[in-house]
Specification:
Helix content: 55-70%
Strand content: under 5%
Order of helices and strands: HHHHHHHH
Radius of gyration: 20 Å
Oligomer: single chain
Distance between the termini: 27 Å
Length: about 140
């Protein structure tokens, strides 16, 4: 409660802080369904593009794995893929296991040539068609951030 007490300037008192806490819980709950739909739509669209390039068993494609960054520190999409495919025997289950950040990281410039130049507007057809693909891809990445 201390965070909410500080936000309401009510040290030691809880009425306004508790109201703020409840408001935060309700706001978070209201955003959960749209966030879930966003994730499912994005991961299915991205998976469709990846499948067009690497085939239906893309999580096990050495070429796809090599296309992913593997920084020694911080989040690693390559490591996330490796862990997810050990936990799941099918592509569909791997898709469900991968973290939201994995899907966001697919919208980086390193995937432009292989995926997005040829497939972005096809897998997300309601994008602004007149904008260049790299600009659309960067906007998606920023919006997900």
């Amino acid at each position: 409660m201390s965070t909410y007490e500080r936000a309401t300037n009510e040290a030691g008192e809880h009425s306004g802080a508790l109201d703020l806490y409840v408001w935060n819980a309700k706001a978070s709950a209201a955003l959960l369904v749209p966030l879930h739909i966003c994730e499912v739509v994005l991961r299915n669209a991205i998976s469709e593009a990846i499948e067009a390039v690497y085939g239906t068993r893309w999580p096990w494609s050495p070429g796809f794995q090599r296309s992913l960054p593997a920084p020694p520190v911080g989040y690693s999409p390559r490591r996330d893929l490796q862990v997810s495919r050990r936990l799941a025997p099918t592509t569909g289950k791997v898709i469900a296991e991968l973290k939201f950040v994995f899907w966001q990281k697919m919208f980086t410039a390193r995937q432009d040539e292989q995926l997005w130049q040829g497939y972005l507007k096809g897998v997300l057809p309601n994008l602004a068609a007149l904008k260049p693909v790299a600009e659309l891809r960067a906007t998606i990445y920023d919006d997900l951030e």
